[in-house]
Amino acid sequence: MSEIYNIIDKKKLDVVNNSIEKAHGLPNECYTSKDYTLIERKKLFEDKWIVVGVASSIPEIGDVKPIDILGMPILILRNKQNEIKVFHNVCSHRGVKLVSKSGKINSLIRCPYHSWSYSLDGELKATPHIGGMNKHSADGFDKSKNNLKEIRSYIWLDLIMININQNEMSFEEYIKPLSDRWEKFWPIKDRELIHHSNDFGYLQLKTIAKVIIFHGFIQD
Ligand code: FES
C-alpha cells in the first residue's frame, strides 16, 4: 500500500472507506496516473489468479490460442495428454513471439525466426544450426534450461485461470471462500453439470438458470 501513497495522498484514499454519507469515490489519480496503473496491473493482473479463457474453446489436442494480457503475449494450448497448458508466447532464443494466430499444431511449435522448436509441453526439442552449419547442438548448451516458460494454470468450471507471477496461493485455496459460499446454492457435486454455449461468452447450466461470468454479473 505504501507505494500507492507515494502517488496518491493517503487522506484521499481513506475517505473512500468512510461510511456511505461521508465517503467519496476513488480519487482522480486512480484513473489518470500511469504509475498507479502499473501498480494495479501488478497487484491485480500479475499477482492474482485471473481468467484468460475457456478450456472447451480449445477442445482438441494440438489446438493453440495466443492472447495478449496487458501487452504480455501468452499461449494457451492443449497438449498430448489432453491437458490445457499456458506458456509465455516467447521464444527462449531471442524472444520472438512464437504463435501469432489460433490453430492446430500437430507436433512442434516452431519459432518463425531461427526455427527453434518446442513440444506441446514446452520442452525445447530442436535448435537448428546452433553449433554452426548443420550442427544442431552446441557444447555446453543445455536444451532443458531453455524450455518455454510455463505459467501456473488451473481449470475451474471450464475457465482457464492463471497466476502470471506464480506467487499466489494455490487456486483451490484462493477460491475456497467463494466456493464455500456457493455450496448451499450450487453444491460442488452439481457443478459438473455446467457446459458452454457455442460462443463461449457465457456458461449455461442444465437447469433454468444461466450464469454469465465474463461480464461479472449473474442473470437468472
Ligand atoms: S528467436 Fe526463436 S529461434 Fe531465434
Structural commentary:
- The protein is α+β, with helices and mostly antiparallel strands and 220 residues long.
- Among the domains are: 2-46, no CATH class; 52-152, 3-layer Sandwich (Rieske Iron-sulfur Protein).
- Helix content is 17%, strand content 22%.
- The protein has 5 helices and 13 strands.
- It has helices at 2-5, 10-14, 29-32, 34-46, 171-182, and strands spanning 50-54, 63-69, 72-78, 84-88, 103-104, 109-110, 117-118, 124-126, 152-156, 159-163, 195-196, 203-204, 210-211.
- Strands 4-3-2-5 form a 4-stranded antiparallel β-sheet, with no helix packed on it. The chain has a 3-stranded antiparallel β-sheet with strand order 1-10-9.
- A hairpin with a 6-residue loop joins strand 11 and strand 12 (203-204).
- The chain is globular.
- FE2/S2 (inorganic) cluster binds at residues 91, 93-94, 96, 111, 113-116.
